[in-house]
Amino acid sequence: MALIVEVLGRHGEVRLRWALGDGPLTIGRGYDNDIVLDDRYADARHARVVRQQDGAPVLEDLGSVNALGGPDGARVTRVVLRPDMQVRVGRTRLRFRDPDAPLPPALPDLPVERLRVPLWLLRPWGQLGVCAVAAAATAWDAWSDSYRGSAASAGLYAALGFGMVISLWAGIWAVAGRVAAHRARFLAHVAMVSGVVTVALVYSWVAVWIAFLFPDNPVASPAGEAIGAALLAALLAGHLRLASRMPRRRRWITGLAVAAGVLVIGWVAGLPKRKEFSDVPTFAPALKPFPAAWIPTGDLRSLREVAVGLRSKVDALRATHETVRDRSDDTP
Fold first, then answer.
1. How high is the pLDDT of residue 86?
2. Can you tell me the distance from the alpha carbon of 80 to that of 60, in angstroms, rounded to the nearest whole number?
């Protein structure tokens, strides 16, 4: 009977396949074995596979310390091998399969897209660098917004919280990628969300300065929403690039659709909170150390001229109002 021996990994993945022949086959940690196990609980010469007189393959223990783990988990010294049987050698599981066992269909080999990014971003150290920059930016943002004595601890807690949140987010995408495309790429997912968060933080810092310099700018809010939606769409498209075999156009359509849905939900949720019209101006509470030399100023004489001009306009409007009122009183 012909069999295929599979060496299984910790999570059940197949690390090695070997066809059993007619001759003996040795298994152990020593380099002179036919199947070499990276297992400290396996002996140098742990077991061997031989044929009985009827041709059935048998796994025999060679006097090892931990013997063999049979199909029922009990320690044995000899096992007659059958298809779909699992035996433990040390802490390594061996599975024996029929050569004619059915296999799942092959995955389509789609053309690999060229990533238009620097090569160092594809390396682990480059991805770790992106994560470190994002964590530092998050810590700086929390530290700069804190006016308490524990500002340093606030930055540290923000960086730790950032790491936990993006690790959970990237872990979900990594599991999805493992299921859909047979590749996890956890670190790449972490770098992806870290890069987007860094860009979002930089924009938020710029937006605060814009709100300080131009507090009544009507374009700031729509621009912020558009940039946020674009970053969300890019983030989802990037995750789908790493976790699926979806074409580029479909990835971006999915990302844009989700971002548009988030915008609509936020707009609908904010409808009850909209205030009625008020003549009291509102300004963003943003204070920045802006250099005084850059602020346009004038002397007291120019201020007096402006005040006199405003007073003249107010007097003219009052005179006009009194004239109209007198005419209305004289009308029978």
1. 94
2. 9
